[in-house]
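#struct-help
A.M.: can someone run this one for me? Single chain, 218 residues.
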Amino acid sequence: MKLVSFGDVHMATGNLARMEHELRDTDLIVISGDLTNFGGPTDASKVLDAARKACPKVLALPGNLDKREIIPYLEREGVALHGQGMVIDGVAIFGCGGSNLTPFHTPFELSEDEIYDTLQHGYQAIKDKRPLVMVCHTPPFQTKCDRLMNGTAVGSKAARRFIEEVKPEVCISGHIHESAAVDQIGPTTVLNAGPFKGGGYIVVRYEDGKLDARLEFL
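D.P.: on it. Structure tokens below:
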């Protein structure tokens, strides 16, 4: 099974055309949040349609710059990952959208308790399954994936706590554009591809019972 993930799209889907070779054998696209720029379902549908043309099977969750009404829209489309958990081709996937609180009061922000509870709700649906991929728009606190330009760590403490407790094999994140990176929390590989317009994306392969996750750039 091959999963390709990208996020922080902000309506800029042009790089999908450059990924034709990569996506040719992809089984699943996961959009890890911020489909739009402060947009709702109409804008989100444009991004989802573009992704579906590249790969019929898509999952997505909203980011902090997506309006909350995107959640029921994604649910109606059958692609929602926020607070959900499912097994696809032997890989268990669960997720949480939005972000922890910011100084900017963006459309979809959550308290740390809400982030933890949302992750827990999704995880409960697949808790006995492995391997496990956690998709969280906001990266876990104090990693290479959550640093501002000045080095300040602004990720979610709840996301980090959940990783330390559950130990998913892979955590896909985003949100912090300047922190495209790969890091480790114990056995968990944490990845942030940065904004999709910048050419970053994540490839996760499941083969012989093991997951391999890599950060790639166009």
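A.M.: thanks! Residues 139 and 149 are 15 Å apart (CA to CA).
D.P.: also worth noting: Residues 2-217 form a domain with the Purple Acid Phosphatase; chain A, domain 2 fold (CATH 3.60.21.10).
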